[in-house]
Amino acid sequence: MDSAGYTTLTRQSGLMREMRIIANNIANANTTGYRQQGMIFSEFIQRGDGDTSISVAAARVRETSFAPGGMQQTGSQFDFAIEGEGFFLIDTPQGERLTRAGAFSPSAEGTLVTPDGHPVLGAGGAPIFVPPGTTDMAVARDGTISSEGRPIGQIGLVQPLDPGAMTREGSALFVADAGFEPVENPRIRQGFVEGSNVNPIEQISRMIEVQRSYEMGQNFLQREDDRVRAALKAFVK
Fold first, then answer.
1. Among positive and negative, which fits the CA dihedral 16, 204, 36, 119?
2. What is the mean pLDDT of residues 158-182?
3. How many helices and strands (H and E) does the chain possess?
4. Pairing assessment for the beta strands 95-99 and 173-175 based on DSSP bridges
5. What is the DSSP letter of 203?
6. Does 128 have pLDDT greater than 70?
7. How many Å apart are CA 204 and CA 5, to the nearest integer?
8. Beta bridge partners of 139
9. How many Cβ atoms are within 10 Å of 14's Cβ, its own excluded?
10. Confidence of residue 40 (pLDDT cuts 50, 70, 90)
11. DSSP-assigned states of every residue in 115-178
């Protein structure tokens, strides 16, 4: 295959990866706490024969948008949304994870957990216990939890030391590879959850652009294949 074919194939591969990411964004447009992803294309120059060189595009890096999503009022005393920076800290079998998805509920044992059953950790790093049968739980803006007027715990919010180094796990969990620290001025709203930050219209528009670009690349490869076949037939004759 000539250099034009290699260049086009690398571009096609990157467009296919971006198409999968866009489709996943659209599928999670209504997922609580979901953070939109994008693909970063990079260019590198590969030396050819003699003084020639080939410009090749590669798409291997995923970029996550941490822009806030819209607030959705639920009225549930166990739903929480974060205003500004910060993440809830979750304890999973694989270790501590960060999330912006604040749709929680008490377990049978009284521990505040995620829909997957993972405990939500408090400011001190321990699971949050909610007395069984609690119907008047109130959470202050700083995350302090009270029931019947008495404090019973505090929801902890943390901030990654390097947001760019976080690794996505599932639809709404993140691994803070560089570590994290407590948020100095946490702001939590009870009875709300933060929705996805995906803009479906923008994503559909981008999907159309990527599809058209991919089709142009396919047409180019087909024309190159026809040209090479015609040249080989002429040479054989």
1. negative
2. 92
3. 2, 17
4. antiparallel
5. H
6. yes
7. 29
8. 145
9. 22
10. confident
11. TTSPBBBBTTSSBPB--TT----EE-TT-EEEETTEEEEEB-EEEES-GGG-EEETTTEEE-TT
Is the backbone of residue 46 left (phi > 0), alpha (psi -120 to 50) or beta?
beta
Contact 75, 193 (CB under 8 A): no
pTM above 0.85, yes or no: no
Expressed in angstroms, the distance from the first to the final Cα of the chain is 22
- Residue identified by tokens 């995923």 is 62
- Higher pLDDT: 40 or 166? It is 166
Q: List the beta bridge partners of residue 91.
A: 96
Residue with tokens 């490869």: 221
Euclidean distance between CA atoms 194 and 8, whole angstroms: 40
The pLDDT score that the predictor gives to residue 189 is 95
Token pair belonging to 235: 């040479």
CB atoms within 10 A of CB 231: 10
SS3 (DSSP) at 210: helix
> What is 3-33 written as a DSSP string?
HHHHHHHHHHHHHHHHHHHHHHHHHTTTSTT
Do 114 and 121 meet the contact criterion of CB atoms below 8 Å apart?
no
Amino acid identity of residue 15, one-letter, is L
Which residues are CB-neighbours of 192 under 8 A, at least 6 positions away? 71, 72, 73, 74, 79, 80, 81, 102
Query: Structure tokens of 82?
Result: 């974060």
Distance CA 104, CA 76 (A): 9
Q: Give the pLDDT confidence score for residue 132 in this predicted structure.
A: 81
